[in-house]
């Protein structure tokens, strides 16, 4: 009897894992806590397109007071006009911002964001903006590309946090939601600098949380695998003929991100297989995980150069699909 129970339990867990698109913690949280979002001030960077735009739509519908940022003001105005909810579109604040513009500009943006909704400062800061160049080898990266990636993904994001956190600390509450990546947990052949920037974010924000948790500061680090957007973070266009990467929709990614934040989860992984399985291997069995990535690495760089599938299991066997 006990063996039968163990068999069915293992089968159930294996089936859930094989068909999952979130890690084990996220798998068992299936609803957004609306009360954690409604009437809250939520500032989203990178809201002019992609996952940030979809996050804005879902959060507006849940009754949040939104501040949306990116460099492209026209893009932000378009997103604003398409939002609907208790405070949208009319009370949505458009705050154009270049994360690489230096501390003085970021300080001005923080002061504006804090003043937009009288009586309530920023409750959630969603660090979603990022810069990613098309895939290239670790040695082919130019200094300019290295600096741009780190200026936006790391220095700008951390500076904004340093400037905003004191306001949150005065209120005794505040929540940073950080859009990292699977590339922030595992090696990402062909995306070494992007991966380095996301590893840096993970290190900073987990440390920040452990320093400030007792003072009311929450941090949720979100690590998505491949997500379908109109432009996959500057890489190849999704749906392009011949490219058959299996990507989770931006809508599902945004929904799981909101679930994770409202349940105050500290880190979540969002992806289809085989990316989730690789993340588990690298985290819990690093010797095997890194061995696997070493087998895949060169093939993935070649697949990226041919605009092929860079998430396929076939990379392990050297059979690159290309367009
Ligand atoms: N899509 C994926 O497969 C995937 C997978 C894992 C993780 N992620 C992460 O999820 C987040 C969103 O990805 P996405 O695919 O939706 O990205 P995306 O479509 O490329 O959009 C990036 C956003 O960041 C903004 N941005 C870029 N440079 C900026 C700067 N200097 N200052 C301020 N804003 C800037 C862009 O707006 P402007 O150009 O108007 O400034 C845009 O709104 C990113 O952090 C990304 O690393 C994405």
TrEMBL record:
Record domain Ketoreductase: where: 40-229
Lineage top rank: taxon: Eukaryota
Pfam families cross-referenced by the UniProt entry: adh_short
Signal peptide: 1-20
Keywords, ordered alphabetically: Signal
Record's protein name: Ketoreductase domain-containing protein
